[in-house]
Write a structure and sequence with these properties.
472 residues, alpha+beta, UDP-n-acetylglucosamine1-carboxyvinyl-transferase, Chain, 4-stranded mixed β-sheet, 14 helices
């Protein structure tokens, strides 16, 4: 069967649970590693030593993509929402911070054994912010929230950190402007100043497949007059559609088109957010490096538009079975039983490149250890993420002594190589830091990764969780 057809608790001390990076760095610096093969050298560096095996069980923080969308929709819904297992990452905390600035009341429930956020919905109309909305490092926050503030009768400014300020936003600026929003930017980059108002629905053909852009336009369409039609060149992740339905909206999908009628009212929900599949990718690839590994991942998101990763890993030789499969607000959730095998290789191109865009860094990082290597094509989108991920991956692989060919839209990495430990850079990119901590588990000698604290952007407890699963 093709999988595509088919909890960790927070330890942050911030009183209102806004995971600003300073808090996350402090949190990370207090980690105490018991094993010698993975230990923190300082708050900005981690040393990873070769491992013998990966074994154990893990339950992951809530999926980032779903956490962002549920929080935003809970804000513009009628009534309250209770979101259990909300993502612990700084990106999703940035979304909560922006919502608070827009007058939305929410609280982190400290008396629960799980990471619970309760949001009091404000209905479709929010309050004008008294200051710029700080999106931090989160491209998801700035792109998707742009769709909501474009439908408000006030002006908002959305800004972010240095990395976010260099990321292109024309993909949301262009269609939102056609819908009636007035947007100014820094040459197509943040900060974005958005004068919202009465939006009109359009039929928009997206030039590049992007789930974030699609969700932005669906949110804008919900607040617009008429029926919005979005046509995507390739089917992308459908968390936006499923989240809208979970909150009571009606949508229609036909092929690569999705339609939503404006003016619908949303209702608050109570739900548990499944574990983040993109975070699970790192542990799955760690298990794939060792033939005798055994790993269990519980309460994991199994959305068919995300689960292509499992098919690819199975084709490469990892043994994966799914148990306890259930549906929760349209999202499939299950438990994975994973056993290692002999890795062959893979080619990732076309629709797979779009489906695996967040998982490509860790797949590329372990490519030298496969028998046939991995080739990535049609993934130019990687060049405009938190870093130029194609260049970042190539630089770190070369530093480890591995051969790699950097392509304009991807990478070609031969198999059968024996990378050595080295001093690597995270490039301020959480997925690069985590991907190469996995690659380092099989390297010859220890690896030092600079700027490792950026893992807190998506997964503050990543290194301590990895330590618990690694056998030295």
């Amino acid at each position: 069967m093709s999988f595509a057809k088919l909890r960790l608790r927070p330890r942050l001390s911030s009183s209102d649970w806004q995971c600003k990076l300073a808090v996350l760095r402090a949190h990370t610096s207090h980690l105490s590693f018991r094993y010698i093969n993975l230990r923190m050298k300082s708050e900005s560096q981690v040393i990873v030593r070769p491992a013998r095996n990966v074994r154990g069980s893990v339950s992951l923080p809530g999926d980032k993509s779903i956490s962002h969308r549920y929080a935003m929709l809970a804000a513009i819904a009628d009534g309250s929402s209770r979101l259990e297992n909300y993502s612990t990452g700084a990106d999703c905390a940035s979304t909560l911070g922006c919502l608070r600035s827009l007058g939305v009341k929410w609280e982190h429930k400290k008396d629960t054994s799980d990471n619970v956020i309760e949001v009091q919905g404000s209905g479709p109309m929010l309050a004008a912010p008294g200051e710029a909305l700080d999106c931090g490092n989160s491209g998801s926050t700035i792109r998707m929230l742009s769709g909501i503030v474009s439908g408000q009768n006030f002006t908002s400014e959305l800004s972010g950190d240095e990395s976010l300020s260099n990321r292109p936003m024309a993909r949301v600026i262009t269609p939102l402007t056609v819908m009636g929003a007035r947007i100014s930017s820094q040459d197509g980059r943040p900060p974005l100043r958005i004068a919202g108002g009465n939006l009109k629905s359009i039929h928009y053909r997206m030039p590049v497949a992007s789930a974030q852009v699609k969700t932005c336009l669906l949110f804008a369409g919900l607040l617009a007059d008429g029926e919005m039609c979005i046509e995507e060149p390739l089917r992308t992740r459908d968390h936006g559609e499923l989240a809208l339905r979970a909150f009571g909206a009606q949508l229609e999908r036909k092929g690569n088109e999705v339609r939503i009628r404006g003016g619908q009212r949303l209702q608050g929900i109570e739900t548990r957010i499944p574990g983040d599949l993109s975070s699970a990718a790192f542990f799955l690839c760690a298990a794939a490096l060792f033939p005798n590994s055994k790993l269990t991942i519980t309460n994991l998101l199994m959305n068919p538009t995300r689960a292509r990763l499992l098919d690819v890993l199975i084709q490469m030789g990892l043994r994966i079975s799914v148990t306890q499969l259930e549906e929760l607000h349209g999202e499939l959730v299950g438990t994975l039983q994973v056993e290692g095998g002999q890795l062959t290789g893979a080619t990732i191109a076309g629709g797979d490149a779009a489906a695996l865009i967040d998982e490509i860094p860790v797949l590329a990082a372990i490519a030298p250890y496969t028998r046939k290597g991995i080739e990535v094509r049609d993934a130019k989108e990687l060049r405009v993420k938190e870093s130029d991920r194609i260049a970042s991956i190539a630089a770190n692989l070369r530093a480890m002594g591995a051969q790699v060919e950097e392509l304009e839209d991807g990478l070609k990495i031969p198999g059968g190589q024996s990378p050595r430990g080295a001093e690597l850079e995270s490039f301020g990119d959480h997925r690069i830091a985590m991907a190469f901590s996995i690659a380092a588990l099989r390297a010859q000698g220890e690896t030092l990764i600079r700027g490792s604290q950026c893992a807190a952007i998506s997964y503050p407890a990543f290194f301590s969780t990895l330590e618990e699963l690694v056998e030295h």
